[in-house]
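Hello Y.,

Per our agreement to keep a running log of every chain we model this quarter, I'm adding this entry. I've kept the format consistent with earlier entries: sequence first, then predicted structure.
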Amino acid sequence: MEPVSIPFDVVDGFFHAYWRRLEAYLREPVRRGCSVWARVGELAERRVVTALTEDLDSGAWAERNVELLDLESIDLGARLLIADAA
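Predicted structure for the entry above:
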């Protein structure tokens, strides 16, 4: 098992792809492309979008997460499983 770091500018649209580009989560088409949103339910999704909008607009997210802003990639728990063919 090998860790797979997620680059901040990865072009795939999976949930963790936007870890440093959170404004993407504010766009409904982006959320519809990530299965996690279907699992949390509409009410939770609305709460998250509202809170995230406020945090991004006020700069609160950037203040709380300043250590992330210059990272090129991050380990968010993705793992590559490698089978031994022997």
